[in-house]
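Researcher: Following up on the earlier apo prediction. This time include the ligand. It's flavin-adenine dinucleotide, with the SMILES given after the sequence.
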Amino acid sequence: MPLNHLIRDGDNPDITEERQKATFSTEELAIEIYGEPLAQRRREISAEVLKRPELLDDCPHVFLDRTTKVENSMKKTVAVMEKGSEICDFTSREELGHLVCEVFGDDGFPLSIHFVMFLPAIQGQADDEQAEQWIPRAMRLEFIGTYAQTELGHGTNLRALETTATYDKRTQEFILHTPTVSAYKWWPGNLGKTANYVIANAQLYIDGKSHGPHNFLVQIRDENTHQPMPGITVGDIGPKFGLNTNDNGFLRFDHVRIPRRNMLMRHSKVSADGVYSPPVHPKLSYGAMIFVRATMIRMLAHVVLKAATIAIRYSCVRRQGEIKTGNGEVKILEYQTQQHRLFTALARGFAYRLVGDEVKNLYEKIAEEVKHGNVEQLADLHALLSGMKSIVSYDSGKAIEQCRMACGGHGYSHASGIPEMYAVEIAGCTYEGENMVMLQQQARYLVKGIHRLAHGEELSTMLQYLANTSNNKFRIGESGVDLENALILALEYIARSTIERVTARLDSLQNKGLSAENAWNENAVELTRASRTHTRLWIARCFRDRVHRIENHAIRSALTDILELFLTYEVVDMSQYLYQGGYANSDQVAQVKDAMYKLLEKIRPNAVSYVDAYEVSDTELRSVLGRRDGNVYDNLLKWAKSNPLNRTEVLPAVEKHLMPMMLAAKSKL
Ligand SMILES: CCCCCCCCCCCCCCCCCC(=O)SCCNC(=O)CCNC(=O)[C@H](O)C(C)(C)COP(=O)(O)OP(=O)(O)OC[C@H]1O[C@@H](n2cnc3c(N)ncnc32)[C@H](O)[C@@H]1OP(=O)(O)O
Ligand SMILES: Cc1cc2nc3c(=O)[nH]c(=O)nc-3n(C[C@H](O)[C@H](O)[C@H](O)COP(=O)(O)OP(=O)(O)OC[C@H]3O[C@@H](n4cnc5c(N)ncnc54)[C@H](O)[C@@H]3O)c2cc1C
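Model: Understood. Below is the ligand-bound prediction.
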């Protein structure tokens, strides 16, 4: 029995040859990633989707205009809701998430923000009575909701949001109002044409006093006619860099009245006579953002692994050039440069995917505590997620772009599937908090850590390495120190020294009389760097611990190669910091590079099997280059021929415009 379970007759022999080289069982690696029974359930769901034409695209989605894309996704949503429970268990987020990926791909679908933000906001912030009233209806899809926070004028600085919710004691209602053009809600997903309810974030005013932003449930469209409710102006914001199947929208409230009990009241409350009770932590109304930041790590990793699947498979069927003259053209994956750009993308994908599981578990644990009023770990969680969403979105974007370029010209075509993946993934740098801003949120926490240490106070587990000042020499190659440990210690040094340096600069500038705010802004770039080095260390440690816990020896060994490649790449990428304070010399950094190049060679025979084990079906991949069977060229030709521009031999526009011009030019001769 071959170890790679995807070998089939009729496949491109070049890709079959790759699968025959597997040194681990791809099914066992799939189980390690997804767990049982999910690994098997995912396959069954993929197979079921293929049998149901109503869930499949009639033609490649990239050939469609926006209106048709939106209509198709609405039509398929109804099909999923009607028949989906025959295919998957709707109560399982994992199974439903997989079905959604198969049917809709990455570009958005009408219920994305309903499930990803609207429901989580209610679950986390509504009191029990409200939850009982709203959640069952929302789950049955009697209505569709979205999360309307960002405004035309402000997305980052939430304290400056202009939408107001003024309490009217007389009628026991809030009046939602958009006082200026810049106060229009702008960006919420599925707001433009789909949602009929929103969680609106607005400044709460009682008796002329502001209590800051709070969340309110507001009906914006009639439940029977879908027409905007009185006082509501709503629409789609237009085409974007990506996510064009998603109707991101704008929204204006003109003195819209809602009942008092439509304010989400688990944490903050307004009594009938207008008495405000604040939450136990001032940022609890930011809970839905925390949820998405925790969830998006795995979503982003998934996109990287899809791009790596495409580029690695394609690199095994594409032959171009010779390494040794006269020996024939090689698969492009034989080139070291190709391996370097693709295997490091693969390593990041695996690291972020597996660490994403840990982040999700940590989030669930702390969210449960918060629900019961214990907010002790909220600051740790907020700092971690601020860093994680920033590093993973940005570095995943770079990895996907490398995958695209590694496919040469065909990577630039939508036939590869990668341009759309990049456009969707890179939005993660912006949504849920612009990266530079979020990195600085985490930097505050790191600087505080150094100050706490100086005052002899206890540090959270995440920051304890800051106290390890004896780690001041790179120990690569020393007897008794294995590669992994030496690299993790190097990453600890990089993070600690960077955070210490920038904190010392901040302190010194303030000691010289500069205000804390100005000192901060003068060091903001270095602060974001400190934040990055800390997060990259956290990911590395967490990935290492995850791999060490694997019991299946062959799978642990396969993922250890990926882990070591990840660690060497991270250290090489940040090696300039190793020279700070004389921690390492250039020979030692060269040793890390050599180790990295050896790992590329070691991973090469298993490259296709790693991505096969991630098990993304062709339906979900939507890529001609990444097809499981490797039959790329015939299908590229079919794809191009099916393109709407080729429906007629002579395009009407050519007949109308260019032909007369050319004929007129000829007649002038
Ligand atoms: C089952 C089906 C599955 C279906 C799958 C379908 C898949 C679909 C895929 C769809 C994908 C697309 C999804 C896209 C969703 C995007 C939605 C959005 O962007 S929504 C919009 C997203 N928008 C954004 O993300 C906006 C970004 N902006 C912000 O978050 C805030 O304004 C801020 C954090 C930057 C500052 O806030 P500000 O109030 O000015 O606060 P200060 O700076 O003054 O800090 C004061 C203190 O508070 C602390 N603290 C702060 N936050 C938190 C927290 N959360 N917690 C705890 N603490 C927190 C902070 O550390 C500090 O502590 P200390 O130092 O004093 O001790
Ligand atoms: C695809 C997509 C989907 C979205 N979905 C939703 C949604 O469903 N609901 C919703 O409410 N919103 C949504 N948003 C909005 C999103 O959350 C905001 O765009 C995001 O939080 C960034 O805010 P901004 O647009 O105001 O950027 P800005 O804050 O204007 O950022 C512009 C630049 O200013 C810099 N900057 C701003 N403040 C600071 C600072 N304090 N320090 C240093 N630099 C700073 C930033 O780093 C950036 O370089 C979505 C956005 C996108 C792109």
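Model: The mean pLDDT is 96.
Researcher: Noted. I'll compare it with the apo version next.
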